[in-house]
Amino acid sequence: MKKVLFAVLVLSLFAGCGKGKYSDIKEYVDGVIACIENHSEKILQANTGEEIAAEIRRYGDEMLKFAKMDKALHDKYPELRDYDRVPKRVKNQMLRLETAINSLAEKVSPHLEPFMDDEAVLQANIELMEKFNNIDFENDVEF
User: Fold this and answer.
1) Fewer CB within 10 Å, N or C, the chain?
2) Longest C-alpha distance within the chain, in Å?
3) What is the CA radius of gyration of the chain?
């Protein structure tokens, strides 16, 4: 999970504002944030371990799509692998995505807690970690 969150944060560094050279990266970041917010809402609406497990699996599949986009964007913008060369307006997007990531844990943790020993939820979390561990994110930017 940390690997995915780090890669998402790295890409958020590249998110420009609106139009321009990095507008496709802004769209990527907007998509990741929408995915995170949607996941949070669906987890909060779930009432059973099976519903939560299904949402965890859906979220994992959606994040895999973003992993493919991650690689393509890193290939397209290799100059942004050097953190010192990332424009300030782009770096500011990192805060936006970091807030969404932190908000996810804060929102869903209390709702998930009673289901953490549920077999379906445990299995879905294992599958999610396996998916994320197999993702080859491009994250050459060092902090």
Assistant:
1) C
2) 47
3) 16
Amino acid at 56: I
Q: Distances in Å between the alpha carbon of 17 and those of 70, 77, 118?
A: 18, 16, 42
pTM of the entire predicted model: 0.76
- pLDDT tens column, 74-133: 888 887 778 788 777 667 777 788 889 899 989 999 999 999 999 999 999 999 999 888
Query: For residues 51 and 124, is the Cβ–Cβ distance under 8 A?
Result: no
- The residue ranges of every structural domain in the chain are 2-7+24-133
How many angstroms from the chain centroid is the CA of residue 11? 10
DSSP 76-136: H-GGGGSGGGS-HHHHHHHHHHHHHHHHHHHHHHHHHGGGTT-HHHHHHHHHHHHHHHT--
Q: Tell whether the model's pLDDT for residue 15 goes beyond 80.
A: no
| pLDDT at position 26 | 82
